[in-house]
Amino acid sequence: MKKRIFIGSSIEAKGLAEYLQRGLQEEFECVLWYEGFFSLGNHYYTDLIQKIITFDYAVMIGGEDDLVKRISTGSEKISPRDNVYLEYGLFSGILSPRRVLLLMHEKCMVASDLLGMSISQYRDGEQAVAIVERWLQGHTDPSVHRAISGRDVGLMPTVGIAVGYYYNFIKPFLGKLFESDMECPAGLTVLVPTFVCDDVGFYKRDLMLRRRLKEEVILKYRILRDVSDESELRLYDIPSSILSLFKTVNYVFGISEGNTADTLFAKQRALDDFYEHLQTLIAGDYEASRTVSMERYTLE
Q1: 118 falls in which pLDDT band (50, 70, 90)?
Q2: Rounded to the nearest 5°, which phi and psi values hold at 215?
């Protein structure tokens, strides 16, 4: 699936929003704020809070929308519409500030609360697209100089669930493995699916059928084992905590079962984030990085 980008703007800046969409749509799925984003009968604020977790990134366009006059001094300034600032704050709080770009026209004065931030300013549509492409490249291409790095902590509990799986399973299992007298060389592959299936038991059943994996109790843990090669103890695990991610999405959207387009997008993003956070934890652990590998599991 393509990464999803929400593009927000005022009505006056719709032209630039559409220009950005055309410039990015080959590599990303770009959703404009007025293209069916808001549901009929729902409060706009409620829709924003729920649907933000269905996106990977957001770009907020601050155009030359308003002429603001300060009563106390009589001074005037050009400013973006208030809703641009509001949505920038909402998306930043849920996706994290690193995943949200505030794109401001060079003639606009920046709100005082944002002074000190590195605000991206543009003079025309062509420059705006170039700025956004460079920003996105920093997220998606690790070879880029000063590539975006760090750890996102957003609304979804992917960080906590990844940390819990790492400390509650991977660390204890490796501890028992290194203390044991098992003669066969051993390795553990953590499989994180690329697709959403609310029946998380399907992942294990499918792998057992198609990859000749067998469930065994090893060191008091139920693990999948590759029985095609008896000379090496090749072990696999699919984190059952994925179910918690899916249930959290359903809870946020107020449904008990089934899926909508929004919940599928949110669950897909949760899987991607879980994989990235767990990968970071394993890479930072010398023993785990030598013993544990990670793989995205597909149906193909």
Answers
A1: low
A2: -80, 125
